[in-house]
Amino acid sequence: MFLNCHTYHSLRYGTISVEDLVQLAVDYQLKVLALTDINTVTGIYQFYKLCQDHNIKPIVGVDVRVENEPYYICLAKNPNGIAEVNKLLTAYNCEGIDIPKINPPLENCYVIYSLQNRPEKLLHHEFVGIRKDEINYLINPELKSLIPKMIILHPVTFKTDEEYELHKVLRAIDGNTLLTKLTENDYCRNSEYFISKRKLLDPFQQYPEIIENTKHIVSECSFDFDFETPKNKKHYTGSKDNDFKLLTQLAYEGLTQRYPDKNRAAIYRVEKELEVIDQLNFCGYFLITWDIIQYSKRMGFMHVGRGSGANSIIAYCIGITDICPLELDLYFERFLNLNRKSPPDFDIDWSWKNRDDILEYIFKKYGKDHVAFCGTNVEFKKRSRFREIGKVFGLPKDELDQLSKKPKELHDQNSVVQQIYMFEQLLVGFPNQRSMHSCGILISEEPITNYSALEFPPKEFPIVQFDMHTAENIGLEKFDILSQRGLGTIKEAVNLIKEKRGISIDIDDTTLSKNEEKCNEFLSIGKTIGCFYIESPAMRGLLRRLKCDNYKVLVAASSIIRPGVAQSGMMREYIFRHNHPGQFEYFHEVFEKELGETYGIMVYQEDVIKIAMHFGGVSAANGDVLRRAMSGKGRSLSALQKLKEDFFESCKKKGHPDQLSQEVYRQIESFAGYSFCKAHSASYAVESYQSLYLKAYYPIEFMVSAINNGGGFYRTEVYIHEAKMAGAKIHNPCVNLSEFQTTVYGTDVYLGLMHIEKLEAAVKLLITEERKENGDYKSLEDFVKRIQIGIETLQILIYVGAFRFTGKQKHELLIEARFLLSKNHYRIKVISLFEEPQKNYELPVIEKNVFEDAFDEIEILGFPVSHSIFDLLKTKYRGHVLVKDLLKYHKKTVKMLAYLISRKHVPIKMKNHPGKKDDMYFGTWIDAEGQYFDTAHFPDSLRKFPFMEGGIYLLLGTVEVDYHFPTVNITRMAKMPLIADPRYSMDEEKSKEMERSLRDDVSKTSREPYPMEYEIGLPRQKGI
Questions:
Q1: Fewer beta carbons under 10 A from the terminal one: N or C of the chain?
Q2: Measured between alpha carbons, how far is 305 from 296 in angstroms, rounded to an integer?
Q3: What is the mean pLDDT of the chain?
Q4: Cα separation of 338 and 332, whole Å?
Q5: pLDDT above 70 covers what percent of the chain?
Q6: Which of 127, 51, 32, 40 is nearest to 82 (CA)?
Q7: What is the DSSP string of 368-415?
Q8: Looking at residue 466, what is its pLDDT?
Q9: Residue 133 phi/psi, 5° resolution?
Q10: Residue 285, number of CB atoms within 10 A of its CB
């Protein structure tokens, strides 16, 4: 009888979770329940399953409203009814087609109007809902005549009085208004909560027809949904047989190209995989992915096929991936096996510049009625909860900032603050808005509106109203269409090398980069800044500790850097065993047999599965639970905890020592955080090598491409520094030689106009387009005639040196600019056949400070170009040790002068308080010669000598050389002053502004501290 229930998926309206709604129905011993969220079907599939679990008949529908005005409630008679409502909402959300206020064309739904919004004419499937507190209105003859078309209406929106007040807060948040300004029309009635069936029916006993109508609707509505059958597009060619023929043809064509020597193992593997793919009806899935890749290749785009899909030799042969599974002993069953019922994921990366083209192709090729992005439910985050609730209570911005940032005990405990804290806790876990999944595309066989209404978020691709987990549960597997900047850098570098040097590079030939001695040398010394996935300080340190000089070690390094391995403490152990292969013992013979390649260390997801099965006796089925827990599909410890009991019981039967079993399970458990499958690491390693090859042999073009693609781990200044270290001469932006992006002429690198933040994008583009069309700018006057520009924008260009080709000093150009613009002659672009000769102005020569330009550059670009930052120091001291000498100073104290590049916060266990966390930082710096080094800042040191933002510091610390990699443990540090800004010599405060604006990159993590070495507790030395 409860035919209008809302959950918190009725965004900023309902206050009940789907689980709680069903549990309430159980508590009230209901046999039927309807879910009708406002304009969404987000929760219906979870609702359906929960009702089935509790023997409750689920009815699903939608409460249709437009701009908060209730229209009607739609109850689906069958799955076609939900499809009809979905189409109605989709047309409104995506195409702006009005929803009819009355008599919507919904043949497979019952439509229920409120008493206040009823139409003059009711169709056969339409009814009027009447609430128990509205029964007295039936004495009205007009309403009495409607009794044959009436049903009981008792909406449910909240559970308790407290939640009713929360509902009002949500309505105020939704309306962006004060709580006190809400009207009765803005929120629901105070009776919208569960009551007993008896209390609901008693008032209607005198109107049995209304009760019978309600029962009739309940009996007629049915939502039987098949969760088992895959809903993805079934066939690429139109039939299963033709799909198999095409996939077979493509596989064998690719086989001859990938393995020209007729490799017998490869031939056998292709035959075996084709058989499994055909049996599981996945040919269409492979071919759709292949089709997308073919389009990408026709367009000249680069892609990377990664994830477990790289375990497939078919994927390798047809060009989806570039990883040979035989080379790395990748087994197909990790990706696809006969026990798997749902299609696997292909994770495909494109350049961030090309991804939208790929998406447009998919939507056009497979039809907008069959393609959509997965949605995501974005919850109210902690700070936003305080801000949103504080706003509806009328708190000013300063107080909102304090509330969201400071702990509870530091706030004034008045009644308003107490209410805010109460509502903040009630809002935990509530969805706030629906957004687009970052990469998950759904391609369905039937129209996708059969399963969900679509919405149109700002990114302009339609989304379904549920997330990837729900999509998977109902049989819709996603295609992961991802983007990254690394591929953009590689592709642009290849094009730039071709354009500037006339050299063509087949970057897809991965043997080219992996077998290059120079690349492997760069790897071993961590000379990898700008290179995909291997440029961060942590990764460069790991490469140096491993002296990584080959592909297979890089594949392992790409995975052991992940939190899963690091959290287990086994990253440290892997480094030791790699450097001392004869000084450790395997935990057990199973580890030696299964993980010999990685010294008995679990590195990949596959390793964890192997150990769980072969050491712990976990079944193959539970092995798949492990895989899913670690792959991100339900990533959590809870999935692993279910296996814990069986694992230890099996270990006991196998006679394993308790201490060993505990330690092995601890390592397995840590992988529930994050880890890579081996094929994923291999894919990353290939791309790392491609970028490293370009860096090793064409460093200037490569760094220019990295700059133009937004860099990576570091800020732009670092990549410009890298180009300079590679021999480039860096030039400030110039209106005649610069493009929108940074460009290179030989070894001369001209920074792009894109780096002048205060310059409007339209002006940046206009400057280059006008120059290409009508030639170089001859003078400032010529520029002003051709480019419509204001004085402030023109001054920025002058200060950055964009008119230095004129040979005039900046002060001359500034005076000329004001004179030219003050005449108002050039409000529109002027091109004349007969140019008047430019007037020459004789101005006094002004002696300027040699460092003025550097401070202009810091102000406009964020970093100096014409001078090194070290040139701007007050002191001439440069430290008594440089980076090149650090390896000689193991365990010794050094004093260094260095420029801060980046720092990373890491939590560690507090001394004497194992349960509490403390803070430490790792810093990355360059010395006066431009070489990089790293520092460690422990809590005691940080408390006395904290970071003071970006700049140059004097550092005092002890050098620790850890497997070829030196780190300076800082005991003291102080930020060093720059010279006063010569542009403001008369204003002491102003002369310090640019020094205070210097940046450093700061990254933080909230993860749990990694275990100390002694906590791992297993012997390493033989004989111990």
A1: C
A2: 12
A3: 89
A4: 11
A5: 92
A6: 40
A7: TTTEEEEEEEEE--HHHHHHHHHHHTT--HHHHHHHHHS-GGGS---H
A8: 93
A9: -85, 5
A10: 26
